[in-house]
Amino acid sequence: MDHNKMYSVKEVYYTIQGEGYHTGRPAVFIRFSGCNLWSGLEKDRDKAVCNFCDTNFVGTNGPGGGKFMSADKLAIHARQFWPKESHMNPFVVCTGGEPLLQMDDGFVTAFHQKGFEIAIETNGTILPPKGIDWICVSPKMGSTLLLKNGDELKLVFPQPDGDPMQFEHLEFEHFSLQPMDGPHQVKNTEKTVTYCHKHPHWRVSLQTHKFLGIP
After folding, report:
1. Is the pTM value of this prediction over 0.85?
2. Which residues pair with 157 in a beta bridge?
3. Is residue 136 domain-resident?
4. pLDDT tens, 3-62?
5. Which of 49, 66, 139, 197 could form a cystine bridge with 37, CB 3.0-4.6 A?
6. In CATH, what number is assigned to the domain containing residue 121?
């Protein structure tokens, strides 16, 4: 098991999970650098597989970010963000970019040893290491979905060719539709609410952190 792999992280911060099943839950967020569906550069957005991404995952210069020479060092770093007076086990959300480009068995072992419950938010194009506690897959149309089971499937809606019904047979416990942000956000929210109203297999996920003004 490789405990000495280097991890490139854009930022690490403590916040409240703003979307999906765990909305409202305090969490340490680790945003990994890099993605396999977009370079992260605006000049490449139009030809990217995922051209609606709303996060900055380029480089390692964000708050709490950097290059970490081992999973243990990254786990120790992340643990410092959790309130010291808390008696709850720390909860970490691994996101990006695409976190599974870097997460491995050593990462899972190191974070579990520090008491973390580990969640990921992934585009589902890469299979994860074993032992992750909560897997949220957010499919992107135009990519190949390899990860077809987990805890939560959260689909940004609407996407071209992104009929939610094509995912309903997959092995997930929870299914969420999240309105696509951007210039049509109000209209997309109306479409999402209408779809979930007609198809109760799905629940509405809102990006509450954006209107709460938290990271």
Report:
1. yes
2. 179
3. yes
4. 568 999 999 999 999 999 999 999 999 999 999 999 999 999 999 999 989 899 999 999
5. 49
6. 3.20.20.70
N-term to C-term CA, the chain: 33
Evaluate whether 5 touches 129 at the Cβ level (below 8 Å). Answer: no
State the virtual CA torsion across 37, 66, 18, 95 in degrees, nearest 10.
30
Q: Residue 18 and residue 20: Cα distance in Å, rounded? A: 7
- Split into its structural domains, the chain has a count of 1
- Angle 60-63-65 from CA coordinates, rounded to 5°: 35
Asked whether residue 1 is domain-assigned, the answer is no
- Residue numbers annotated as active site: 29, 35, 50, 53-55, 121, 209
CB-based contact 24:34 (threshold 8 Å): no
In degrees to the nearest 10, what's the CA dihedral of 9, 34, 119, 138? 160
Q: Are 131 and 112 in contact (CB under 8 A)?
A: yes
